[in-house]
Amino acid sequence: MSLILQRYARVGNCLKCHLTFSRQIEVRRFLSCSRLLQNQPNKEVAPSAEKVDGQLQTSFAKKAKENVKTASYTVVVLAGLGIVGTVLFVVGKELFAGDTPQDFFQYGSDKCMNHEKVQDLLGEPIKSYGVSTRRHKSKQVKHMYYTDESGKKGLRIQFDLIGLRRQAVVELDAREDDSGKLQTRYIIVTTTDMNRKSVIVEDNR
Hints:
Strand content: 15-25%
Number of strands: 6
Number of helices: 4
Largest sheet: 6 strands, antiparallel
Number of domains: 2
Mean pLDDT: 76
CATH architecture of the largest domain: Roll
CATH superfamily of the largest domain: Mitochondrial import inner membrane translocase subunit Tim21
Order of helices and strands: HHHHEEEEEE
CATH topology of the largest domain: Nuclear Transport Factor 2, Chain: A
Radius of gyration: 55 Å
Distance between the termini: 168 Å
């Protein structure tokens, strides 16, 4: 009986030792795993879908604003160029058309001052001028546009000549030709004195 009890006691001691050893192994494993987890670097957290969507909307809004600004600047520049082009076209048309009263005044003055009969009638040197003002004699001339019986447009101008002996009034008439350009019909010089002598400088009637 005593032998049996001794055997059971030995077996119980062995079981206690085995359980104690197993627990120690588990504790060691747990500690090693926890150390490994603590030593691992923290991974970056991926951005959420909402954050990515917000960033895309912000960048799209910025691009849209920039496109609107660029378009507005382009419209302003084009409008300015259009205005400048229109002004230059009108000015160039007036300067180079050759159908203005000032153009015919210059043409008629040259023709009259170089005409021999006008030189003999008025006396040299001869000067031409348009409308007289208080300060000086301007190059602006009296003129009138009209339309004849056939519907063609015409221009009639009047300016003055002053020579060494006499003064005279010049009447110039121009009318549209078949191409629509004004052509000189006649230039007549008439003195302002009592004799009222006239010289026909050009006659294309």
